[in-house]
Amino acid sequence: MRILVVSDTHGDIYSLQQAVLQQPKAEVIIHLGDGASEASDLKFQYPNKAVLQVRGNCDWGSSLPIFGTQTIEGKRFFFTHGHAYHAKSGMLSLVMAARENHADVLLFGHTHLAVTDYENGLYIMNPGTLSGSGCGRKTYGIVDITPAGIVTNIMNLR
């Protein structure tokens, strides 16, 4: 099972669509905020894919939740934009929230800096930004759930 993880599209629907096209095997798309309208558009464009999303700090007026949890292929995901957990000051609050929710995988955005890590049984990923704002690099993440375990990767948008 492949999961496409995106964040911080900031109106760049073209880059979001390119990421989806570059990962045709992805059955689930998780948008981590600051792009609520673009993520909503995906639900109509790709009705055969599950699209999960949360609200970012720039998603003004959105009624989306601040965080979400989802079990996929037996693995529990905790996902959030990150601003409510002070992601720009470090990952401690995010990791604590993920652990409180019994997550196997923590996904967050907000910082625009791509990272993938593993800490005491918890896979951690920030896919960076598809808009390229702040860092000049357009990135997204993929999470593969295989019989051997979980694999996370950061991908550059081509």
Automatic annotation (TrEMBL):
Residues 1-145 form the Calcineurin-like phosphoesterase domain. InterPro entries: Calcineurin-like_PHP_lpxH, Metallo-depent_PP-like, MPP_YfcE, PdiEstase_YfcE_CS, Phosphodiesterase_MJ0936/Vps29. One of its GO terms (molecular function) is metal ion binding. This is Phosphoesterase. Belongs to the metallophosphoesterase superfamily. YfcE family. It is an enzyme of class 3 (hydrolase). SUPFAM superfamilies: Metallo-dependent phosphatases. PROSITE patterns: UPF0025 (PS01269).
